[in-house]
Design a protein that fits this description.
The chain is mainly α. Helices cover 67% and strands 6% of the residues. It is globular and about 45 Å long.
Length: 163
């Protein structure tokens, strides 16, 4: 599969994704970036670029956290650990130490990804966690009457769920 086909499929997945599926996609991109960094030489520009992409994915995950929920604080601790591992991997000259740091980060991200996939696959489990009447977060892009793209975000804190 070419890079262009892969990018088109990812774009389609993102366009059709629920908020939970967007989180899953972000984790997948994070893991892909960590793997790219692991496969390149320490202190190379390719490794640095892959680590930067991974840290951008983490930054996106930070923004989804609602710190009023205890679970989000636990996730933040894990994200901070992964971020520190990525930073330390980026300054390592020793390949084995760099790879160990990235392996540790990937293990945490893989565990979290699997947990989110379990939630996505079992709608009843998600209902138990957020309640049957919980509405999904409504945010995204809409089209106005004139056909122009408009950004829409629902700021009602009583709606939806957050991690």
């Amino acid at each position: 599969m070419s890079k262009e086909q892969s990018a088109n499929e990812l774009t389609k997945r993102i366009e059709e994704a629920t908020p939970l599926q967007l989180t899953i996609i972000n984790y997948e991109l994070l893991l892909k970036s960590i793997e790219e960094a692991r496969q390149t030489a320490a202190k190379s520009t390719h490794c640095a670029a892959a680590l930067d992409k991974a840290r951008e994915c983490l930054a996106q995950l930070y923004t989804t956290l609602d710190m009023d929920i205890e679970f989000s604080k636990d996730l933040m601790d894990l994200y901070l650990f992964v971020n520190r591992s990525l930073i330390h991997a980026g300054i390592q000259r020793n390949e084995d130490e760099k790879n160990q740091l990235l392996t540790d980060a990937a293990a945490i991200v893989t565990g979290l990804l699997n947990a989110w996939k379990t939630l996505d696959a079992d709608e009843h489990l998600l209902e138990k966690l957020v309640g049957k009447d919980a509405e999904q977060i409504i945010a995204g892009l809409t089209y106005g009457k004139d056909g122009k793209l408009e950004e829409f975000q629902d700021f009602d804190p009583s709606r939806g769920y957050k991690a």
